[in-house]
Fold these 4 entries.
Entry 1:
Amino acid sequence: MKNDIYSYDLIPDVDMPAEFANHQNRRAAREARGDAPFMPRRQFLKLSGIAGGGLVLAFMMAGRSQSEAAHHKTGGQKTFSPNAYIQIKPDGEIVIAAKNPEVGQGVKTFLPMIIAEELEVPWESVTVVQSEIDKDRFGPQSAGGSQSTPRNWTPLRQAGAVARTMLINAAAAEWGVSAGSLKADQGFIVNPKNGKKISYADLASKAATLDVPDAETVTFKERSEYKLLGKFIPGVDNPDLVTGKPLFGIDQTLPGMVYAVLVKCPSFYGKVKRANLEDVKNMPGVVDAFIVDGNSVDGELSPGVAIVAKSTYEAFLAEKALQVSWDKSEASNESWGDLKELALDLTSKPGPVAEETGDMQAAIDGADKVVDGFYTYPFLSHSNLEPQNCTAWFHGGKMEFWAPTQTPQAIAGAVSRILGIAEEDIIVNQVRGGGGFGRRLINDFACEAAAVAHKVDAPVKLMWSREADMAHDFYRVGGFHNMKGTIDKSGKLSGLQDRTLIFTNKGNGRPVRGGNIRAGNIQAPEIPNVRIEAHEIPLIVPCGWWRAPTSCSVAWVFQSFIHEMATAAGRDHLEFLLEQYGEPRWLGKQTSRDFNTERAINVTKAAAKKGNWGKKMKQGQGRGIAFYFSHLGYFAEVAEVTVDSSNNVKVDRVVVAADCGILLNKSGGENQVEGSVIDAISTMASQEITFEEGAVKEQNFDDFPLLRMPSQPKIEIEWLTTEHSPTGLGEPAFPPATAAITNAIFEATGKRIRTMPISKDGFRIV
Amino acid sequence: MATIQINVNGESREISDIDPTTPLLWALRDHLGMVGTKFGCGKGLCGACTVHLNGTAIRSCSTPVSAVNGLNVTTIEGLAHDEDHLHPLQEAWMEHDVPQCGYCQAGQMMNAASLLATNPKPSDSDIDNAMAGNICRCGTYQRIRKAIHTAAGNGGAA
């Protein structure tokens, strides 16, 4: 029965929009997640196919509405648009819509690539446009949980294959031959028998008159026939990015626009008692200043003072003159120091058993060796380089947004609840986000912009300073793990116990976002006796999903502790780690969410091989390995470090072996992996968010530093080619990196790091 | 309030009725509508706001507009000679597909351009040292270094 703990969803935090809705509006949450009965996928594709025959499609591009209507009919010729994603124009232009928010994960490039592959067109002939937000036509549109890839893999292939099938049918009708005798080839339909070919452009008008086939009936290309997927394809926005074109949320400019800040209480959930509004209104450039009540709902609208000015700088200057008397009666008064003390005390004692497999006490009683290790890690900020911001314009009874968000479909529900504007009167334009990492899953900034724009007769760009961004994040939750492991007489890992602490949201009593800890997170199914004891502490400090939620922190604990146990057993870590997976098999329900030990074994062995596992290193150098399965991806990483006598750590090389099924875009995929490794080193070096009296102390990149170029390691990636469906890459490369590096530091120095960041133990990343 | 004249990307621009303490960053973004230069930290810590002042990289978030009165400022919008002739760094950035979110990249390229102007064939450590003031939250450092080498004509040298 020991496999039971592996049969549940290993990515518990994946349904972010559902959580976002704060359990107050479950219908909105379901719809945002896309699993409401509003329109099954099949029906959705059919309907949009019908609509595409005569519907004018309006695409949004970089925040500017660009109607395609003018090009829809040219001289009696028709644009072929069998669904919401594809337009093939008689002049040969092929337009593919990118449905999901781009925040640096490359989704604006690789989702259209899936369509282009099945459509069978040269990538160079494709123009990618950012789609509008429309869940009826595009289904769920969000960027979270590395879900864009698995969710869209089938529907987008269908979108492309439906169009290709119809073009083949059009050519078959034109030539009076059977569709089965024709094939598509890079923008043409060809008849292999006689060599005749006709371009998609020339077929567009004819194809537009045909019935759209059921998406379930069309056939996909064989993977061996892929011409585009898996190649190194640069991002579609690159030409605009390198020339400084306005792509990001912060870049949006509208005629007559004003600039605003919303000053919130430093202590979370503090309210405004009174403020010197008249003084602020007299500041240069200030247009208005007023109190925003807020609804004090986690993730929505915090109370504060809005200052509206003619420029960002004047709004920032006026903020300095603002004096607010805060009502902190319901605000957080928490301090990280006090919480730590309480957590240390609690986790030193037995706690309620959350999960148990086997008999941990028996494992302890019969152990040859018992090892204890206390692990702790801090809160973290997301620190998107583009500070939170949002542009909103209340005009003609409609609230229109240009929002750098990961969950654009969730804005309407929240804003409707706050301001009473009907959801259908809320329009969200997609703009590029300067980094996501989970921060922009929560739309507090959009709620703020709406609250200000509702009162101002002009478009409003709401801007957060870096300091505001760091003080009002939804943080990666800190953690405490009092670990105990047992080695039996045969040298095997016989038991593992985590006496841990779960912070619960004081509002709803559930684990904070990214804060649930389960036995399945250990990912060592061969351990016969496992026990999770979980104390609880209610928390007001807002927590959020932070790149690979839960996994980003607990992978370090468990993958470090397994190394500790291997060391205690006097065993080779690689061999010991492989032993924990057991035989190659697929656990649980054998879905992509269930742990597949074969894939774990393969990436672990591949990383070890490429990472020269077992090869001798010089004095002061060390090599460490770690594995983790998260967000459907299997990753093993080997780190090599050099540590000098002053505990300066140089991460020399990180080798990554990845099984993400089929790799969609080699460039984008490698970018995500390289970035995840850098991010892991960045966080472990010296990042820590602390708070006193409910207010965060760190303010900017001087006291919350990010890794800089001289500290980057060499990163090498090996993609294992497997037949599994592709999985997202925004997250899964992060979790194993930290443990691989601290395990390497142990090998180099004999010092076990059990506290994050490693600066706490006197280590410094150089 | 003051009137400031700046030569931006070779064009004389006048900004009237501006607080002379306004950082050049916000003068560019809010007053001149040139939003390629980015706001990251406001304290010269991240480099996202890097522009050239008389050819040298500076942090526009920490430079008051009064300090650049009458001077030559180059922004990312003016890094290319013209639309058909991009700067070698811009070409290399696209070739290596450097950007992830891309938010820091204008500052990275402006800083790199300043480096190449004084050191046309930088080594890895020259690049690391020169670029250490520019944060990339997404972690594209490996590609930035490669792209600078490519732009410098160092071939595949790393």
Note: The first strand of chain A starts at residue 58 and ends at 61.
Entry 2:
Amino acid sequence: MRRQPAGKTGKGTGRRLYALELKKIFPMGNRIAAAALLAALFLFPFLLRSSTLGVYETVAERKAMYAEHGGEITEAYLREAADTARDLPDPNDPEAWFTMTEEDRKEQIWLEDLKRKLERFGLPSYEELLWDPERTEPLLPEGYGPVLYADTDGWELYMKLQSGIGAVVSLVLPCFLLSPLLNGEVASGMRRVILTVAGSERKQIRAKWCAALTVVAGSTVLTALLPLLGTALCTGLTAPGLPVKNLGLGLEYEWTIGQLFLLRSFLLFLGSFTAAALTAGFSGLISQTVGSMVAVLALFLMPLLPLPKEAPQWVVEAQKFGPAGFFTGDILYDGSMTKLAVFCILWIVISIVVACTGRIAFHSMKIPEEFYRN
Amino acid sequence: MELTFKDLTKRFGRKRAVDRLNVTLTHGVYGLLGPNGSGKTTLMRMMTGLLKPTSGQVLYNGQEIGRMGDAYRAKLGFLPQEFGFYRGFTGNDMLRYIAALKGLDEKKTEREVKELAERVGLSSADMGRLVSGYSGGMRRRLGIAQALMDDPEILVLDEPTAGLDPQERVRFRNLISGISASRLVLLSTHIISDIEFIAGDVLILRKGKLLLQAPPAEIIASVKGKVWTVEVPPEEVERFQKTCLIGNLRQTGTGVELRVVGDEATAPAAVPAEPTLEDVYLYYFREASSQ
């Protein structure tokens, strides 16, 4: 059978449609809301700095501390820490804190930080040597790989932000911006016009998909880079080449911190893509603009619901496989790259299927306009 | 060019919104008249391909429009009854968007946007403003402009003059008259004077069936001798309203002059009057008017 022509396609129409679709997504109100969210992301490192650094010290002091005490954590390193602690006044005595010398105060800050890091690395504290000075057996477990005491403050702060507020923004921003992608055409009274223009569904949907992808890419890049920039400015981001073990996240991979940052940013992108594609799909299947956003947020937030303690193992595993896994990092920290790959492919396929179904439904004459108005 | 409705029927459940309609339209302006629920909008939706007929066909030069697909839609310009706008779009953006959907290149787009804005009386300052700040009449004019984009051969206008002030309506009528020579324009409206002035043919629908199709003058002639004027004292008005179809009431110094539409004179003093298309509408839709 002979194919009918798909309407005219003049030069540059795709580019102009894409630009106008982006304009539709970003009316003034949305631009302000997105800018406010992103500005908050940039400023959060400054607000949360104390959660990583402690309240008494400055960034410069801590950098000096790492310069002085930095190095591989070994038995000798821990014994030196215990010896130093023995010579200092009792840190639990508030009087002593205010009367100790500047030098002692710096040593005390180092010991506190070391204690916190050992705990994060899952290693015993040097304090065990204080309680048992005669101890001869090693503190570090046998075969434990080299871990450095080094300046990872900025990365620790950044990872907290990325899995917290950054993940929320990566999820909410595409949902909020793309929820009226298809059903918004009915609210604007344009669906009927579009359906009567030759070839317009194809041209329009291409422009819409491209604009949606831009939103996803833009929001991922900005949610990854803005807190990174904020953290770099307020705390510094040294040593991205350190093994990932130095963050004490329990990751067994032989990655560097920089590689972990890239992988997590990529997962945020995939999560954001999944959220966007599901939102776009639902916006062709649900009549209400808000409905598509709520449906996707519910889907993403459901796996975050706390499970009862007696929940069977398969339920726990299934919950990890919810799309929220892109943002929580549960699948990444689970330690299986195969599982991670299956998880990513599964959700990308599901979201693309939903997006295509929504698009087909929306442009189908079989679904009357009234459906979207009820 | 010829557009034919062949035994065209659309059923919604048990209700026949359009019932075995057989009409052929060629160049010129066609006015579609009928009360709410008479099938006007359903007919327009089938004509634009937005609705599939339950049975029967819409044929363009003998070809079924569903089979023609984009080839038919490329000839269409459509203004729906509820034409809206995108938040954050200016008048220029709206027209450029439609131009891009219709596949016009940049040069032609800019030329068409400028020309159409002028045609519908929107200044360049208006076109640069957000559509959300437009009055109802300005939005309607913008809607007409988008329907005219790329010079469509078939123009379907659902209530195009709703919300336009008298000056804008005159401008619209002149615009449609000016472009109708080489194309088919089908417009439905409740403002009968619009049709009376510009339509070459009027189609009157009742309960999904075609009641009449003729030029306005012929249709008007069909009710000649069925329109009367009679002057009555004010206290008589209520009695007349209950028993006759009153087209108009006008206070005179000595009483009230009633314009009565009906087969027979309702009072010995009634004087035959020249009918208008509005009288035709009232005459044929007596039941709807009295409801």
Note: Chain B touches chain A at residues 48-52, 68-71, 73-74, 76, 78-80, 82-89, 93, 96-98, 100-106, 108-109, 146, 150 (CB under 8 Å).
Entry 3:
Amino acid sequence: MRLTLNIWRQKSPVDKGRMVPYTLDNVSEHMSFLEMLDVLNEQLITKGEEPIAFDHDCREGICGSCGFVINGVAHGPRRGTTVCQLHMRSFNDNDELFLEPWRAAAFPVLKDLIVNRSSFDRIIGAGGYISAPTGSAPDGNAILVPKPESDMAMSAAGCIGCGACVAACPNASAALFTSAKIAHLGLLPQGQPERHSRALHMVAQAHEEGFGNCTNIGECEAVCPKGIQLENIARMNRDFLTGAVLYRDPQAEAGAG
Amino acid sequence: MNSRTPPGPIEKRWENTKFEMKLVNPANKRKYNILVVGSGLAGGSAAATLAELGYNVKCFCFQDSPRRAHSIAAQGGINAAKNYQNDGDSIYRLFYDTVKGGDFRARESNVYRLAQISVNIIDQAVAQGVPFAREYGGTLANRSFGGAQVSRTFYARGQTGQQLLLGAYQALERQIDAGRVKMYPRTEMLDLIVIDGKARGIVTRNLVTGQIDIHIADAVILATGGYGNVFYLSTNAKGSNVTAGWRAYKRGAFFGNPCFTQIHPTCIPVSGDYQSKLTLMSESLRNDGRIWVPKKQGDTRKPQQIAETERDYYLERIYPSFGNLVPRDVASRAAKRMCDEGRGVGPTGLGVYLDFGAAIERLGKQSITERYGNLFEMYERITGESPYEVPMRIFPAVHYTMGGVWVDYHLMSTVPGLFVLGEANFSDHGANRLGASALMQGLADGYFVIPYTLGNYLASNPLEKITEAHPAAQAAKVEVDNRVKKLLSINGNRTVDSFHRELGKLMWDHCGMARNAKDLLDAAAKIRDLNAEFWQNVNVLGDAEDLNQSLEKAGRVADFLELGELMCIDAADRNESCGGHFREEHQTPEGEALRDDQHYAYAAAWEYKGDDHPAKLHKEQLYFEYVKPSQRSYK
């Protein structure tokens, strides 16, 4: 098939950026979307033009590196699929496509389709963990976890941190990402001791990074390649509220002995 | 070669070593600067644990976040000798299976330690909130995996690597937030700094700004993964590379068993020239899927039209006691033999069926969806076919490299102060890794081995204080700078990828599933020529002071070109077949690998002697005091 591709080119974070049209012939339906871009890039290099920069790594839909907007939809037309696993059989001959990076103040563009998502790492660092120093763990079966809760935790934990939820949200909210981690850990008995402080700190960090608030639009769930559900946001709100009520300043620990 | 393997009964060796090792006083730990390169299971767990202990840690990864490391793609599971299933498992059995599975080319003491530590890893991961599969009573679930007759594999759907990595990543982010780890994402190590014979730092390139920096430290830890991408097509992530390990090799670290490569039997077959990588389908599928090809050669009928009596379930036929669960090397070679006989399936004839028809009939579609639903979806997304309706088509693909930087029992390389963890080292899997053992090894090294052995090194080796201004550090920086400039100035006619593809094809054809001495030496010579052409004719566009993905790739491919030659030389030098290394000249009448324990029961450790001189082979003799070498039989 033959495609017309309008791709966002931006040399650096300070460059203004613009859409540039390209045409590509002989696209096979068995190619993945990124393989199609590889072919285009090889042609560009041969012509002496700089290839299009895009983030990618595992190309199996699990590392969360890849992602851009295709015709207004994060990760493109196929539901539950990252662009690396999107295959060209989802498109037709003579289609015209528009490729843009994630757009959000908290995800500044670095080059072409690549954005800086380190704000996500800082949200996790603010509380998206269980404090379990290496070597201090009891036997794995010492604490039983009911299968339904464990399964729900696993579903929330499937988030790959790609950022599509933010790109799709009119508020550029990171609520789905943040809540997936809060729900994953909050559903497990091991996550209870830090449950409420976790929600308080992670939500505060998301706010500080410049992500917007959630107004229950649901675009995030629709584009999420891993099927992370909106109910996680309800769990986050509940833990946040409880946390806000229960919050006490930490006490000094020194002085014993 | 001094492997520092401790004496005494094997079950006491690690305990005794830990007791004998020197400790660093808690208040002194923060005075030590440690560099951890790589943030996967091994690097992430090491960086988090060392920071928790109080060391000053800097951690580097080339990806945009430590959470993207390729450990994340491991699907199937992690082994541990918990014996929760009461089916006869034990530390000794896991040790035995791993030594045997590695075809008697691993160091017994290391493997025993790995089996001992395996139980602690599960406890640690559960405490971190890793959502392992559970039974209805709330206990941890297990499944069996290739090469084992007990159920000892813990799993989190088909995303075990992801969940274990996120556990380590979250522990790491906690330390970053606390200011105990300084994280450098989108940063690539391009050289090792060796001063007075000891590893004292690294040179890095910031992949966004192009800035080249020196980082000085008291010890350097490489946890940079495997080098399967030397084959171009592999199940590795596109960015996975050998550069850190290769730079260390060129600074004096010996490279161990470079030719030991694992070809995974269950991957989605190649569909065209544009193919950029191969996708693994978890080996756990072999628990319920049955592998077959048509009995007749050149049978192009659809699988549904081939009657039960016309199918050859060849693994069940040849290996009745292990059936579809034979180890990876055995399953891969059998698939190749079927295709060589002209019985392969699919448009290219390079494929075999993995059929769930019988399992769906026996267990119901619902059970199969619960076990493998996500994998079936992935297969359908890529091929456009539903495994519920038609059998999957699979073919072997390069997956894991057992070889890597040579390390001793303390995981230290031949350069003092340079430690190597996880897939990047050569240590625990011998000539073939068993399924669900990579996650185990990465985490064992990072959580439970390096925190002890690093402390011992620091406490027993007083180090001189040095700064970035040291001439050796400055010289390494200049070299890196020149290499970057050189790559950008060639302005030839070929793209980086075209060299990489050509290298990959040479490697796959001559250093892949079946090898022979003549082809290997031919390939080594061709690779040397290709390397020479690369430095004359590659075309890398763009600038050095910019985010430049072609430049990143060019540096990695340049290192792969050198590594590929060494792999062929190593494979030609090992005149036996063992595990994943199959030499056509050395096979049993039934076509199984034929080892030569009298001459080759050693780990090959290659020393760099300069670009114009052949690498020098050193041998670490392997001793089997507990598991007596025998012909591996899975019949």
Note: Chain A touches chain B through 81 residues (CB under 8 Å).
Entry 4:
Amino acid sequence: MDLPVWQALYEELGEQGFLPIAVALDTGGADAAREWIERAKPTYPCLIDQHHVVARLYDMINVPNAVWIDEQGRIVRTTEPAGAGDGFRTMDRTTFQMSPEAIEGYRQRREVYLNALRDWVEHGAASRHLLAAAEARRRLAGPSEEQALAATHFRLATWLHEHGEPGAAQRHFHEAQRLRPESWAYKRQAWALEQPGLAGGPPFWAAVDALGERRYYPEIEMEGMPR
Amino acid sequence: MAVTVLWEDREALPSDASAEGDALWLPVNELAASTAWELKPEGACRGDLCVPLPAGREGGFLRDGGRQFNLTALAGLLGQPALHETAPAVWAFGEAGGSRRESLQSLEAPDFTLPDLNGRMHSLSDYRGKKVLLVSWASW
């Protein structure tokens, strides 16, 4: 979990105006997220997003995904994996051990991402990591009609789940997944509600394996970022 | 009949809704509480924004002498996806893709309000003046 990483960065840069806002995409609500938050003792806002509202507004299809928002409330880096990469795919699935190369790749990717944040805090609008407005607009295509419909199925599914209708909820979760197959948040949330552990269990690994050469986390287009 | 209305990020339980096929009719005076839209002489309005009801199709929107309003027709007019379940009766009207695509082009970060672990509400706009890293995680 990344909550302690954001806490450390907040302690380092908070006085210079930096603020992480962590959002738990968790239909299980505060009960699902509590343990992790209490352990991390964050002093920055840690919010609970039962209906994945932030995921919809910012097109976050996985965790951790992040977007940079400046002092005027403008998007200056669009949603992307927050320093996360595909190294976990080399993990031994019984011991959960990653190869040393994968661990090193993970460390490097994280370091480049955190340094980019430091650069932004230091240089503000002049930071080389901010996107030009035209590029930000290009990346912020917004939802297609199909994706908007997928989000509606997902919203209905969370309501049905909360109102004791797990069967009907799963039908709408499946529709959301069918319409937005690239969303891991849709898949993993539905698995987690179907049965504890399933989101990191056999269906997850089967879906990851089905990617083949395709990536789980899209490449982060950032200067110095390992591929 | 108790009907739950999910309109974008709102949830409402209007007191007198009636579902007929794909149409959900609400008393006009409950429209604003369920959707933030209200009926004015100019058409359906949300704040300063008004969308005229299509000429000649008023009957698809209003009935019972103008006392009942068809929410499904409004969602269609606004380009919002509409879904429903009958038992329990729940209607979901999602966000219109077109208006989101348009508003994102301003690069303004969409606002939202969510609770923390203690139930205290936070809006993104509360933190204007900060460099915000908005980052997702999950317990799953």
Note: The radius of gyration of chain A is 18 Å.
